[in-house]
Amino acid sequence: MKARIPKHREFIISFPESVSAEMEAEGWEKLQQIVEDYKKAHNGGSIYEPTFIEDCEPAVKELQNTYKFEYTVELVK
Fold first, then answer.
1. Which of 19, 23, 54, 77 is the most exposed, having the fewest neighbouring CB atoms within 10 Å of its CB?
2. Section 60-72 average pLDDT
């Protein structure tokens, strides 16, 4: 069986060591909620949607202020 995964862009997120484990876990939970909310708002759309980054980046930036993580957007092949 073959599966083709389309090229897409992803958020690459990393928390600095100075962030507590509890805060990091809470941050990841909130980031996952962004993905779940996106699916609901876009009829089951996923990270493979062409506008996923643009649609979610404002919410990710807002969380970045609270949870102090760094992120980049990378093309995944």
1. 77
2. 96
